[in-house]
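Thread: Newbie trying to understand structure tokens

Hi all, I'm a second-year student working on a class project, and my supervisor (Dr. K.) asked me to get a predicted structure for one chain before our next meeting. I've only ever worked with sequences, so writing a 3D structure as a token string is new to me. If someone could post the tokens and maybe explain what I'm looking at, I'd be very grateful. Here's the chain:
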Amino acid sequence: MTGAQGPTGTPRPTGAPRPTVPAVLRAAVHRIDRATPAERDRAVDALRALAILGVVLGHWLVTALVADGGALRTASPLRSMPWLTPVSWIFQTLAVFFLVSGHVATRSLASAQARGTTYGRWLRTRMGRLLRPVAAVLALWAVATGCLLVSGADFRTVHTLVKLALSPLWFLVVLAGLTAATPLVARLNPLWPLAVVLHVDIVRFGLGGPAWLGWANVAAGWLVPYTLGAAWTRGELERPRAGWVLFGGGAVATAVLVTCAGYPASMVGIPGAAVSNLDPPTLAAVTFGLAQCGLALLLREPLRRAARRPAVWAGTALANLSAMTIFLWHQTSLMAVTALGLLAGRLPGLHTAPDSPAWVAARVAWLPVFGCALALCRSAFGVHERGSRRPAGRPSRTVRVHRGSGRAAPGAVPRA
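---
Reply by user tm_fold:
Sure, no problem. This is what the structure looks like when written as tokens:
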């Protein structure tokens, strides 16, 4: 007689010992690996996962919520400890995300057009997948804001928390705009938006132009890596030479801008600083992004080899399935841990001023706790990105995605 199915889907004899948790995990990992078409470019998914991980860890490391009297205020360890600046070089990975997004969008659009899908239908599908998780964030924080204000919470604290929680939305607005413009920018040379950034900075920094002019760089600056992604789709960046030129040229240009032109060395904003490289993007941030894109292109083959390992690939696939949920909720996770920690008093690395190496050590120790809080948020709100639960007996989304992706462009965002 047979009873329930075993971890590989085969009937398990009645009375046989139940599979252990490691055995079930190994079976799931290998199932995901086997369901992935051989032609899928796993390096694309790996780069996206690394870019999201970089942003999340970067925010958790350089964003401090300091208990100041009866209020919470934001602070950055980069202000009092400038020797931590290289942290911003490692974890400010948005350019890589826009590179991958441009590559994926242009491949997806070409594939859709080949199938006879209209641009409008293609755009609705991608926008729904991109913006659907936003509703849950806005709804939760609308309720939380109302509760905080009614309970008499300090307005400065409420403003700080809401601003921090909703700060990732600017990224989605830019990405949505670039996605909608994909047919127009698919063949645009990256030098054109780079020239716009250059001239905007010359006017506002060199000629004393208005500061608001810098906001033109929000579109132009991130359009540079996005159009590089389109060039990748066209096959123009396949040779290692392209990666080395972008990496070397971007690194040299950034070094010159920082040392000779007065641009900040930090690639993220620092509260109270006169100039931010990221808000809005400066020429230094864009050239730094070029170096990052070059490095990403050079890492494609090593990442492909690493992603052939079933365990690595399973983690990469799952991270991609929840990429927007992770991005949208990572700041809320940090704040949830910080708020709950206040019940125990002012905790080092959580509520104290980020002004010493001891704070850095304590903050690193808090990272696993932030990760657990983010995992809970993913479990609770990931359905808004992944879609409704599957009917009984239907394969999981991860398996269906990678089984069916052979008909889609390699590197497409995992989806149902």
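A couple of things are worth pointing out once you decode it. The two ends are 36 Å apart (CA to CA). Residues 388 and 416 are 10 Å apart (CA to CA). Feel free to ask follow-ups in this thread.
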